[in-house]
Amino acid sequence: MLASLDSVYEKEFCPLYYLLNAIPAKVQRGFRSVLVYLTALDSSSDFLAVGSSIGMLYLYCRRLAHMNKYSLEGKYDAITAVKLLSCFDDLVAVGTASGRVAVFHLVSPLPGRNKQLRRFDVVGLHKGSVTSLAWSTNGMKLFSGDDKGRVVSRKHSVMVLTYVCVIKTSYFSII
């Protein structure tokens, strides 16, 4: 029985130097040099998404062996949660330390699909750091939780991000 369970799971022990070498160790902010810390990680069959302490999302495409960088414009806010979704289109949700949630609708090379990167931002609903993100199975809803105990649901459409509602508020951190 044990041998059959071991054959089901694949194990990968290869270090990800190609990924880590594409992310800078330091960035220049004015006259200061700031260390870059990797703060969030998610993976799918097509992508590896890495959030950083400087508010930059690094998205590595496994098929093309190419790294893309996406910035959360404005305030340099640490990314605390990342969640990928691969369904009809590829989506990446990002949560930050200030409670901001952004959804990136990625460009698709397939005909008839999204040809331009889109970003949808939701601010002001989370009072603390976003600690958890989860997509519904069909990708129409995004759930986010923060360290103040608030859970928020967003209904996501291809054209706009609408129907935001607070589901639960508790006294404990959401993990």
Attribute tags:
2 helices, WD40_repeat_dom_sf, mainly beta, WD40_rpt, Tectonin beta-propeller repeat containing 2, Methylamine Dehydrogenase, Chain H, four-stranded antiparallel β-sheet, WD40/YVTN_repeat-like_dom_sf, 175 residues
Compact summary:
The protein has 175 residues and is mainly beta. Helix content is 6%, strand content 49%. It has helices at 2-8, 17-20; strands at residues 26-29, 32-35, 38-43, 47-52, 56-61, 66-71, 79-86, 90-96, 101-105, 118-122, 130-135, 141-146, 150-156, 161-169.
Question: Could you characterize what this model shows?
Answer:
One of its GO terms (cellular component) is cytoplasm. InterPro entries: WD40/YVTN_repeat-like_dom_sf (IPR015943), WD40_repeat_dom_sf (IPR036322), WD40_rpt (IPR001680). Pfam families: WD40. This is Tectonin beta-propeller repeat containing 2. It is a single chain. This protein is mostly beta strands and 175 residues long. The chain has a single domain (14-21, 36-169), classed as YVTN repeat-like/Quinoprotein amine dehydrogenase (Methylamine Dehydrogenase, Chain H, 7 Propeller). Helix content is 6%, strand content 49%. The protein contains two helices and 14 strands. A four-stranded antiparallel β-sheet has the order 3-4-5-6, with no helix packed on it. A four-stranded antiparallel β-sheet has the order 7-8-9-10, with no helix packed on it. A hairpin with a 3-residue loop joins strand 12 and strand 13 (150-156). The longest helix has 7 residues, at 2-8. The chain starts with a helix and ends in a 6-residue tail after the last strand. 26% of the residues are buried. The model has no long low-confidence stretch (mean pLDDT 81).
